[in-house]
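Standup, Tuesday
Yesterday: got the pipeline producing structure tokens again.
Today: sanity-check two examples.
Blockers: none.

Example 1:
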Amino acid sequence: MSDFVSEFWSIWITVIVLGGLLWLAYLVFSQSRIKVAKDQKVEITGHVWDGDLSEYNHPLPRWWMMMFYLTLVFSVVYLVLYPGLGSWKGVLGWSAIAQYQAERAKAEAQFQPMYDQYLKQDVKTVAADPKAQEMGKRLFQTYCIQCHGADARGAKGFPNLTDKKWLWGGSVQDIHATITNGRHGQMPAWGAAFGEEKVKDVANYVLSLSNRKHDTERASRGKETFAAVCATCHGPQGKGNQQLGAPNLTDNNWLYGGTEKVIIETITNGRNNQMPAWKEFLGDGKVQLLTAYVWSLSNNPKEQ
């Protein structure tokens, strides 16, 4: 598929590139014809430094001119062999994606067996293997710390992986499924449906579920709305549902923050958070190692 939404842009870029090369070729050729006779006085350009140093208008040395010619020849050869003229793919048919895929396939052929050997072992056994743990740690540091942090304690919107609080479940099977298939947590925005006052009422009821400071009167009004709307996902007692990724609202573990202001923001605007699926990119062996490492962050493999 072409990178251009219209063939015009491909033609336009080709014209600019070829036009630029022709202009540079003319410029170099015209300058190479300038010669100064031995008895001819060379003019000064008018540029003077420190009162004594002046710039003479000498022609460029021949060796320097040859470097320009060689550069132009190289440019033409390159544009014939490789992409550079709009949608022209070059005689060699090279592409960055194809080169990346080839290099990745070569690396996987060399290193994948080292990862796949752990597929024969139980995840908890892999977690107890120091060598496997070190490999899992390096994988985590490469692919996971951007969201979960170097210490795996997460950040706003990204869960802490070192505690026992799991949105989607913390068993070996749950963690493996999360890394393999990814997760997509969504909460709809209720601001338009509830209105500002009812949002505040529900927010205060949510605060009361975890015994946080709240407005009792508002909480009593918000309880009815919570039971009618929010309990569908979070449950009648607000203890959440791991199958849906709906968090437990009765503890003090808050993915986005547990202040009244943040809870009001969550109810009003909703939340949309996604973890990508890693199976296709990493392969089963690396997923196995990552599963073991992440599981070990909140469990002691030696006690299993």
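Example 2:
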Amino acid sequence: MRPGEITQDQDATIAFLNALAEREGGSLSRIDTHAAIVFLGGDTAWKLKRAIWFPFLDFSTLEKRRAACEAEVRLNRRTAPDIYLGCRPITRLTDGSLELGGEGEAVDWVVVMRRFDQDMLFDRMAARGALTADHITELADEIAQFHGAAEKRPEFGGAGAMRWIVEDDITELSAMPETFGETAVGALEHLSDEALVRCAALLDERREAGFVRHCHGDLHLRNIFLWNGRPTLFDCLEFDETLACTDILYDLAFLLMDLEHRGRRDFANLALNRYLQRTGDLGGLAALPLFLSCRAAIRAKVEASGAAVQRDEAVADGMRSAARDYLSLATGFLAPHPPMLIGIGGESGSGKSTVAASLAARLGAAPGALILRSDVTRKRLFDCRMEDSLPEHAYDWDATLRTYARLIEDARAALAAGMTVITDAVYADPAERDALAQAAREAGVPFHGFWIDAPLEIRIERVLGRRGDASDATVDFLRTHPALEQGPMNWTRIDASRTVNEVVESLLFLV
């Protein structure tokens, strides 16, 4: 079969579902993708799998479409139970007409869903500027929770699985020279092979350690929406366990790649850092460029394949252009980018974390720098959530030594993985500052240390404005400890009483 080949006539089923949606009333619309048609009417949506074959997707027979519909309902109820109502057959009556869920012969199957406001899809929210940092923070929390509960599947994943993905991408991209050209695909193939060699042992280690799980598999903005005020994942990859049972960072990489493609590296960086703060999963960072590249390559081939079945030629041209953009992005993710280490210190409430968060997206390879925050590290050492307050003994000398030692350990690992790192801590003691600079020298990377200065009244105001923050610093603490800085200061002092943008621009000029 040829990619995109239609294997069965579904015209009668499509006409029936069109009529069904119209009878339900309300605004009626139809959504066409390369693999499905969704009919919207009233409060309900019906999703019909196309009778189609692609190398990466096979809905060519009735039974395969039924199995895919049943899997879609079962798997998506993990994250969107209110939306997925069930799987129903389209049956034929004795007079030849069709009905939904009748007793006659099944001619096709549909997923029945509760209709939701399409304007609440995250891709649409992003397009109109309605997506906020709070949405991304909550989304990262949702994904971290989902991955934490997902079923471990060690029979999948590892270096072999990623090599198969790379080879499959290259094969399919090469089969569409009219869209991509041989040179561009060849460059991606070369860089991907090098990345696979570097990451092979790590990928197998992560599989054995339980990081390969039954994930979402298609985690981009179009498959996330706001439901009852919370980011909700839906429309997961249901048709192939080989593609859905992956390393959890490979699952997250689809979201990060999508945000990068949309020009929102700030959101991609926020999502990555928030997710890692929740999970502590820093061990897979060396594989992240490969993961990002593969996700972009997949979008490239999907866009190009979708163009082949698109009825509107203008839309098809746009999809082919998008496919080429994705291929360029896939190659760019694998380009080398020398890392650096940055230390940001200062009194409690000085604005260190806000500055670090704003700076991170503008440094390093996509999706930006890793932020290692002492407040989060300390709470992970005590097995606490970021929002939980720690007891007083968690801030004694021994606990502080352990916290700063762990910051350096994590920084070294991330630098070795090729990531630029920003460490965010008080760094009141000269020995702490010197140890961080020494870690950079040992890693052979540039180091920049900044001390963030702000008057006590501004620091008090900032602490009063915190909500759900990892820091346990209080106004009483600031008043009883107005100055923690010790010894000679060999880091660059930065006036943080200015706006965040002004502070960040000052730092960027110095690095």
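Quick observation on example 2: The two ends are 55 Å apart (CA to CA). Residues 144 and 279 are 6 Å apart (CA to CA).
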